[in-house]
UniProtKB/TrEMBL annotation:
PANTHER family: HEAT SHOCK PROTEIN 90 FAMILY MEMBER (PTHR11528). The gene is htpG. It comes from the Bacteria. GO terms for molecular function: ATP binding; ATP hydrolysis activity; ATP-dependent protein folding chaperone; unfolded protein binding. It is found in: Cytoplasm. Residues 484-518 form a coiled coil. Molecular chaperone. Has ATPase activity. This is Chaperone protein HtpG. SUPFAM superfamilies: ATPase domain of HSP90 chaperone/DNA topoisomerase II/histidine kinase, HSP90 C-terminal domain, Ribosomal protein S5 domain 2-like. The keyword Cytoplasm applies.
Length: 627
C-alpha cells in the first residue's frame, strides 16, 4: 500500500533551501551518493562475516552509474546492504543527525562566501541531489529480506513509500534532472563529466565505480561497463608513491571537506603489532565540532576491510580534531565495541598515535610557524583543555605545544621562548587573563610590570587560566597572574615608601573598607599602578576573576566559587589626593568608595551591582564639584 508522508519540518526547510540554492558546488552530489553507496557495501561486508546468507550468492561488489540523456536521468546503483521500510523513514524522511538548523545557517553562509563545502558535515549528503534534480526515486531492498520499497519525492513537503518487487539487494537512485537556464545540469549527463568527477572525488573508493558507456565495434554500437576509479587504497601505497595532490584529493573526497588539510601523517609500524595509519589535520573545524553531536574517532580497517567508522578509543580528547584511518591485520573482523575497550593492542596503537601526532605538531611549530598558528586558531583550545583534563595527566606531553599572545610582540610566544628571554631578575612567568586581547593590553595592572620590562602572557580564552593553573610551573618558573594580591615586584625602598603611606592613611583606608562591607576582603595602597587610580586584585583563595566568570557560566554555576576582591588604590594619583582632602575635611567617603569600587569592577569586566545607584552617585558628586 502506497504511503504519503510528510518530511520532518527541519528537513523540509533544508530541502527548500537546497532546491532554491545558488550554491556553486552542485557537482558534489555525485560524490555524496557514491560515498553513501560505498558505506552501504561496507556495512554489508561487515555483517556477512556472521551471516553469509546476506550475500545472496552475489559477492562481486560494485557501484554503477547509468546516464540517459534522452530521459534526462542519472541512475546510481549499488549492491550494498539496502534499506527496509524503517530505514527509508529514518534516512530519507528526516535528517539523521540533529543540527539541521545549524546546517542551514552554514549553507547560507557558504553561499555568501562561495568557498566552503558544508554538505556532508551534518548527515545530509543524500539531499544534495535535490540541487540538480526535481524528482528522485529510490528503489531498494535490504539484504536478507524479500520485500523491496520505492521511495519518491520532488523535494517539496512530502514523499511516498510503496512496496515493489526488486530482484537484487541494494539501492538504485534515479535523479530526474531539473531544467536550468545555463544548461549546467545537462552537463552531468556527459560521460566525460562523470569521469572527471569520479577521478576528482572518488578515485580511492574501494569498490569499482562503473559507468555504462557506448563503444563502436565495427558497424554496431555496444554498451559496456567501464571502471572509472583506481580502487587502490592510498594508505596501502608507499609514501614515496603518493603525491601531495593525491593525499589532498583523498582527504577532500573521503571526509567531505572542501578545504585542503593543513597536514597529513602517513606511516607504517611493523613488529609485535603491525598497522598503517593515515591521519589528517584539517584546516578548519567542522561545523558541529563544538556541539554534543560531534563524534571523534578514526576509521578502523583490518586486512583492508572496513570494520568501524568512529573508533573513539584511538584518539584522546585533546586530539579529537584528527581525521583519518588505521588499518591493522591484528584485529578480528567481528571485533565489537566492548572488546575494543579492553583490547591491549588497540591501547598500544592509540598510545603510539598520540605520540606521533604530538611529534608532528611539535615539528610544525618549529619549522612552519605560520601553519602552526593557523592550526592553533582552530584547535588550540583542545590542546589547552587537554592540559587540565584528567587531573593534568597529559600536561607534560602537551606543554610545549602551547602558544599565547603577549605584551612583547604582535605574534604568539611559546613557553620556551618566554622563559629564554626572561630578564635575569625576573622570577616568575606573568600572565593576565580576560576576554579580549586589546582590552587586556590596556589593563591598569600592566603598568608597573611593563615599566620593569617584564613580558606578560595574555590569556583570552576561558580554558587558558585552568591550563596554566594545572601546569603550575614551566622550567621551574611559577605561573603568576598579575591580578593576584602578592606580586612582590617592589624594591626594598619601594616597599618602605608604600608601608609609610599605608600607615599615614590607615584611618582613610579603614573607612573605605568599612563602607564597602562584605563586597571586598581588603583595601590597600599599591605600587602596581602608575597612571590609573584604582584596580581590583584577587585574594589568596586560588580563584581568579576569570575563573569566577567561567564557574558562573557553567550549567548550574556555583555562586560560592567567587574570587576574593581586594581594592588597590594608587597613592600617587590625584584622585587619591582629592579623597584624602575629603576625609581630612571630615566628610564621609562612602559615595567616593562606592564609585571607586564600581569603576574597578567595570575595568575587570564585571557587571555593576546597581547601575542606577552608581549613576546617581556620580551625578551627585559632579554637581557638588561644579558648585
Amino acid at each position: 500500500m502506497k504511503e504519503t508522508l510528510n518530511f520532518q519540518t527541519e528537513t523540509s526547510e533544508l530541502l527548500n533551501l537546497m532546491i532554491h540554492s545558488i550554491y556553486t558546488h552542485k557537482e558534489i552530489f555525485l560524490r555524496e551518493l557514491i560515498s553513501n553507496a560505498s558505506d552501504a557495501i561496507d556495512k554489508l561486508k561487515y555483517l556477512y562475516i556472521e551471516d553469509n546468507s546476506l550475500l545472496e550468492g552475489d559477492s562481486e561488489f560494485y557501484i554503477d552509474v547509468f546516464l540517459d540523456r534522452e530521459a534526462g536521468t542519472i541512475r546510481i546503483v549499488d549492491n550494498g546492504i539496502g534499506m527496509d521500510h524503517d530505514d527509508l523513514l529514518n534516512h530519507l524522511g528526516t535528517v539523521a543527525k540533529s543540527g539541521s538548523k545549524a546546517f542551514m545557517r552554514a549553507m547560507e553562509e557558504a553561499e555568501k562566501v562561495n568557498n566552503i563545502d558544508v554538505i556532508g558535515q551534518f548527515g545530509v549528503g543524500f539531499y544534495s541531489a535535490f540541487m540538480i534534480a526535481d524528482r528522485i526515486t529510490v528503489a531498494t531492498r535490504k539484504a536478507g529480506t524479500d520485500r523491496g520499497y520505492l521511495w519518491e519525492s520532488t523535494g517539496e513537503s512530502t514523499f511516498t513509500v510503496d512496496e515493489v518487487e526488486k530482484k537484487g539487494r541494494g539501492t538504485e537512485i534515479t535523479l530526474h534532472l531539473r531544467e536550468d537556464e545555463d544548461g549546467e545540469n545537462r552537463e552531468y549527463l556527459q560521460e566525460y563529466k562523470v569521469r572527471e568527477l569520479v577521478k576528482k572525488y572518488s578515485d580511492y573508493v574501494r569498490y569499482p565505480i562503473r559507468l555504462e558507456v557506448e563503444k563502436k565495434e565495427e558497424e554496431t554500437t555496444v554498451k559496456e561497463m567501464e571502471t572509472l576509479n583506481s580502487m587502490v587504497p592510498i594508505w596501502k601505497k608507499n609514501r614515496t608513491e603518493v603525491t601531495e595532490e593525491e593525499y589532498k584529493d583523498f582527504y577532500t573526497s573521503k571526509y567531505h571537506d572542501w578545504e585542503e588539510p593543513l597536514k597529513h601523517i602517513h606511516f607504517k609500524v611493523e613488529g609485535n603489532i603491525e598497522y598503517t595509519a593515515l591521519l589528517y589535520i584539517p584546516s578548519k573545524a567542522p561545523m558541529d565540532f563544538y556541539t554534543r553531536e560531534f563524534e571523534k574517532g578514526l576509521q578502523l580497517y583490518t586486512k583492508n576491510v572496513f570494520i568501524m567508522d568512529k573508533c573513539k578509543e584511538l584518539l584522546p580528547d585533546h586530539f579529537r580534531f584528527i581525521r583519518g584511518l588505521v588499518d591493522s591485520s591484528d584485529f578480528s573482523l567481528n571485533i565489537s565495541r566492548e572488546i575494543l575497550q579492553q583490547d591491549r593492542q588497540l591501547q598500544v596503537i592509540a598510545k603510539n598515535l598520540a605520540k606521533k601526532i604530538q611529534r608532528e605538531l611539535e615539528g610544525m611549530l618549529k619549522t612552519d610557524r605560520e601553519t602552526y598558528e593557523k592550526f592553533w586558531k582552530e584547535f588550540g583550545v583542545n590542546i589547552k583543555a587537554g592540559i587540565y583534563e584528567s587531573y593534568g595527566v597529559n600536561k607534560e606531553n602537551l606543554k610545549n605545544l602551547l602558544i599565547f599572545p603577549s605584551t612583547m610582540e604582535e605574534g604568539m610566544v611559546t613557553l620556551k621562548e618566554y622563559v629564554d628571554r626572561m630578564p635575569e631578575e625576573q622570577k616568575d612567568i606573568y600572565y593576565l587573563a580576560g576576554e579580549d586581547i586589546e582590552s587586556l593590553k590596556r589593563m591598569p595592572q600592566l603598568e608597573a610590570i611593563k615599566d620593569k620590562g617584564f613580558e606578560v602572557l595574555l590569556l583570552n580564552e576561558r580554558v587558558d587560566e585552568f591550563a596554566v593553573k594545572t601546569l603550575d610551573s614551566y622550567e621551574e618558573k611559577q605561573f603568576k597572574s598579575i591580578t593576584e594580591v602578592n606580586l612582590d615586584l617592589e624594591t626594598e625602598e619601594e616597599k618602605k615608601e608604600l608601608e609609610d603611606a599605608k600607615e599615614a592613611n590607615r584611618d582613610l583606608l579603614e573607612e573605605i573598607k568599612d563602607s564597602l562591607g562584605e563586597r571586598i576582603t581588603d583595601v590597600r595602597l599599591t605600587n602596581r599602578l602608575k597612571s590609573s587610580a584604582v584596580c581590583l586584585v584577587s585574594g589568596e583563595n586560588g580563584i581568579s576573576f576569570e575563573m569566577e566568570k567561567a564557574f558562573k557560566d557553567m550549567p548550574g554555576g556555583n555562586p560560592a566559587m567567587k574570587a576574593e576582591r581586594i581594592l588597590e588604590i594608587n597613592p600617587g594619583h590625584d584622585l587619591f589626593k582629592a579623597l584624602k582632602n575629603v576625609h581630612e575635611a571630615g566628610e564621609e567617603v562612602g559615595d567616593y568608595a562606592d564609585i571607586l569600587y564600581n569603576q574597578a569592577l567595570l575595568v575587570e569586566g564585571f557587571a555593576l551591582e546597581d547601575p542606577i545607584e552608581f549613576s546617581n552617585k556620580i551625578t551627585k558628586l559632579l554637581i557638588k564639584a561644579a558648585k
